[in-house]
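Hey everyone, long-time lurker, first post.

I ran two proteins through the pipeline my lab uses and got sequence/structure pairs for each. Pasting them in order. The first:
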Amino acid sequence: MKKFEKTIIILLALVVVSCAKSTAQKTEFSKEALSETLLSVNDEQIAFGEILSQNKGKITVIEVWASWCGDCVKAMPKIKELQAAHPQTAYVFISMDKTADKWKAGIEKHQLKGTHFMANDQMSGVFAKAIDLDWIPRYIIIDKTGKIVLYRAIETDFEKINTTLSQLEKQ
């Protein structure tokens, strides 16, 4: 029985360690994420790394969303409040929609201000896996140097997002 208990304890410890690694705060994107291309509203493919470099020197909020996502739609007023409170921040929206038509209609319907891109292979694709996407809406905050300061925030984390942005603005 003692051997069995030790085995269970070791297995539980391994599960805890592997779970902790998967939700760890990252400070930079993987090479895979940076090289993955996204569709622009002009129907051009652009590497995620290029999108980030266009915002270098700016605090940037990335929102991963979809027009079909109820939680994303419910969070739209909060993102607009963030934009009003932090107008110098760049906002990048990455859609997980299945079609460009629905994605573009969602931008128009919700009057989302910022730059817009769509993942080519949605929630279970290469880009989503490269950023450890497990829920939308998902928010990532990048500081002026390009370092990730908040890797995983969701629609219930707006207070944390606002505080993080306020702290970055003071730097």
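...and the second, right after it:
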Amino acid sequence: MHRSKKLVVLGHFGVGKTSLIRRFVSDVFSDKYKVTIGVHITKKVVEISAGNSVSLILWDLEGTDDITTIRNSYLLGTHGAVFVFDVTRPSTFQNLNEDLKVVAEKLRSVPIIVVGNKMDLVDANDLITVLGENDIAYDFLSSAKTGSAVEDLFYKMATLLQEDA
């Protein structure tokens, strides 16, 4: 069985949302930073099992320092969300729990995966200590540059969305 599911990828400016999507969809990475204005939409089919796949319609939302300003029109019809923070910039995760409450209110009853990106730039043990001390819960620590955990996080979301169908 094949299903299409809308997945929004959101977070603050410059956390690597576009890079994660490009790594997942095209297996490429670029150090050149381009600001996403509005939304950019791409698609990738994820094979869950033989004869069972999910088309992820990936909505790459523009970054914002105030999650409450996300346009509700971008969120209509959303089946799942990936919230990305930058592990090198505490300002992107210091208020993570509050940001996630806002996202959960806007996207009632959809799965949300929380991803710390840019793991290639920090010591993993130091980061895990900092996140623990600040009570920051996450699902994946990834690197769009190396590809670490990128396939895993999108496959996990596809699996969750397939189960919800």
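Reply from user beta_strand_b:
Welcome! Quick read of the second one: Strands lie at 2-11, 39-49, 52-61, 80-86, 112-117, 140-141. The CA atoms of residues 24 and 154 lie 8 Å apart.
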